[in-house]
Amino acid sequence: MPGTTALNHAMLQLDCDDKGINIDGKKLTNLRFAGDIVLISQDREELQQVVEELDDVSKAIGLTMNRSKTMVMRNEWADASPITLEGTTLPFTDSYVYLGRLISMDNNLRAVIMRRRRCVWAALGNIKEAAHLISDKKVRADLSDSTVLPALLRIRDLGGEQDVDANVGSRTKSSRADATEDQPRKAEKSQPPQRRHMLNVRHP
């Protein structure tokens, strides 16, 4: 993956030593996986500078930022002034899917959990016909564990989780974690009925 290696080298050329936010005594300036990049800045001016620098180093190695996927997230304390790139204002967004995970400034997990639950029921639907042909409960349980259970585990883990795509975010203070504890519990409540359905066991 020469493109990824070149991009990683380019990212190291950014002047970010005194930028980003402080996490346990270390500066966090970006998250990146292959060409998917999140830039993290303390304020609007810093973010504007890093976006321009990333655009420059990307062009130097023959890459371009994907304008259709490049968006800005900010919390309620951040400067609402626009971030521009070559005269174009980057759009603001309240949420963004990064590496399959929905990220939002209010940390509301409802949309994520609902999406995961739909995935679980979809996984169950994919094996529904085969499951009805199996009378052995152990075999049905094994089938559930290998297909449906992985989706359930992804739900339970919520309390933990090409061109250059830069999802950039600015913050001036720590964003408040407004997610309520009962949201992951709602996801876990999906497990018993789905498990009973798979094993063909009636609720007493």
Automatic annotation (TrEMBL):
It comes from the Eukaryota. Signal peptide: none annotated. InterPro entries: RT_dom. Residues 194-204 have a biased composition (Basic residues). Residues 175-189 have a biased composition (Basic and acidic residues). Residues 163-204 are annotated as: Disordered. Residues 1-90 form the Reverse transcriptase domain. PANTHER family: REVERSE TRANSCRIPTASE DOMAIN-CONTAINING PROTEIN, REVERSE TRANSCRIPTASE-LIKE PROTEIN WITH RNA-DIRECTED DNA POLYMERASE DOMAIN. This is Reverse transcriptase domain-containing protein.
